[in-house]
């Protein structure tokens, strides 16, 4: 009989252990669901508090200032290279204009200086200044050549 009592004790221990584990599992599940529910309620309340704070004028001003500063920075980062390119192109165009004005002034000067002499003794200087002016105005050699050909017009073509 001692063997039967030992088996019953082991069986009783196993049943008790099963009930304890089942109870512990049930308790853990209930606690987990409760904690999850508490977490959701806390999140909802915190979101509500934050939303109310953003409605305050002071917070709105801070957010607006930060947004404006960030937008200005982004625009400056994107626009600054284009502005620099434009400024460089503008300076180059201004420099070319000054050079062209100097060429035109030299042409006028040499025409006036030799106006009473035929042929004008300053034709080479006039032609050099004119070539420089056209080279600045039309940097592409092919376009410049077509322009000069057009300038020569029908007078330079052989007549029939």
Write a structural description.
The protein has helices at 2-55, 57-113, 123-137, 141-152. By secondary structure, the chain is mostly helical. It has a domain at 1-55. Helix 2 runs antiparallel to helix 3 (123-137). The longest helix is centred in the middle third of the chain and has 57 residues, at 57-113. The termini are far apart. The model has no long low-confidence stretch (mean pLDDT 83).
Keywords:
160 residues; mainly alpha; 4 helices; rod-shaped
Give the arrangement of secondary structure elements.
Elements: H1 2-55, H2 57-113, H3 123-137, H4 141-152
Helix pairs in contact: 2-3
Poorly predicted parts: none
Q: How many DSSP E strands? A: 0
Main sheet attributes: strand count, strand direction, barrel closure: none
Order of secondary-structure elements:
HHHH
| Shape, per Cα inertia axes | rod-shaped
Mean pLDDT: 83
CA radius of gyration = 47 Å
Taken as a percent bin, the fraction of beta residues is under 5%
Q: Span between N and C termini?
A: 146 Å
Helix/strand-derived category reads mainly alpha
Tally of contiguous helical segments: 4
Share of residues in helices? over 70%
